[in-house]
Write a structure and sequence with these properties.
The chain is built from 24 helices and no strands. By secondary structure, it is mainly α.
Amino acid sequence: MLRTVLAKNLAGWEVMEIFANRVNEADRVFMEFVGMIADILGGDDAPEALRHQVLQLAVIFTCSISQLSPGAYFLRRDLFPCIAKVITSPDTQRFTFEASLLLSILANFHKSDAAKLNPYLQRIRDTQDTELMRKICWAAGFALDAAVKAYYKISDDSIPTFAKSVGALFTSLLPDRTLAMQPLDPPREFLKTQPIEATVSLLPVFEFLFFNPLFAQVLVDMIPKPSDRKQSALVPPLAYNILSLSSYVLTHASSSASPRTLAYANLALNTLLVMSENARIMAVFCKPASSKEAIRLCRQRLPLLPVPSPTRAPICALMDCCVLWLRHNLHKQLEVYTFTTCIWTCHRIIWYLQKERMRLEYDWIELWKAVVDLLGFLSGKLDSLATTGGIERLVQETIRLLDLALRRVDLFLPTPTAVHEFIYEVVRSSAVIRKQTLLLESLGQPTSVDRGASLPAYYEGKLASAGTRSAKDAFRIVSKDIEQNGLHSAHDTDVTDPPYACPA
């Protein structure tokens, strides 16, 4: 009944009038309501079934009331202790999914304009209860694993093995299966229910990652080391499940283009951004992974990502998630903020790699092509895009990303060939980059990316003087010049630590 009443798009005073009969009785009625929730969740006398029902009631009310004024009554009495008790108590720990969700919903009440008045944000920031954090990670791990499995039940996108390929061949030769094959891209109608409700577990994980430094340590402690010979767990570590689920959510975000799927994509990318800004997580993600705990990435839409090594560093999977978003969500109704978040994430990763002098083995050309394709899309569709603004910021951040990569390219790319491929890709796309730089200048936006224009111009001059006629010849000339003279104008500018982004 509560859900049905609150689904009628009521104003805050109307909710008070319905539940308290009169607005001037609202304080008493709603404080008794909140007190009842606190007493039952925090008490030991109530049966477990009743505590679960009250927890569900609180979740339904807070979700339905959203940012309306009756939600403020939950700020007057701190429910954090009783929610934490539900999560850590052996009798009720199986309700951790709902309890952690309730905590994150309460933390988001008027988060942007009254964060200092929200006790739950402060509690999340200050808590040192690692047992609470481990239980939240445990519950979120199972929930996100279920969300990943829901995607590949629609379309099995497992990497083909020899045995599977032979089996599929013989199956296709059966009389009723002749010439039949499973389509690679799942029909859009099958994706309308995705991601499933369990994906909301990503919200408490994001809140703790963003506000509490200790949570990152708990998260990485759950990742097995390559030398660990223990048997694989029931589900992959939470950090790996975040990457796996993000790949599916970001690949299919625009398939239905519903506010719900786009909101989950935004949450997923903000979570990846916070992870890329955390030195503890990055230090672990940049090490080879255990082959027992493979990260499953979405392979349900063309073009497919290259087949990964089972022991490659998890940071490669994080960048793959960014590539998937950049590839599959270039539409007229452009999600500018989410694209900017994606570019920030790539910027932080490259910044960390060059700062630590880590030459990462990765299919870098996939990232460069995706970034350049974004600039090309913006260049060709700028006048027709239906957005909420922020295009200039997106262009500026994308060019800044390329500028950082050009300046520090020899500090994070693994081989000379990888460097040559990157420089060639930039030179090949110089017209697009130049057009975007001129756009920023015409709008009075600071670019600070002289290299984005000067470096391609230098190599374009080399190609023109050599009279190249094919892409193969152009690549050979660029590679030869870099080998003989080094990269043009590399390291000629100081690089300061980029500011940390503040996700919305």
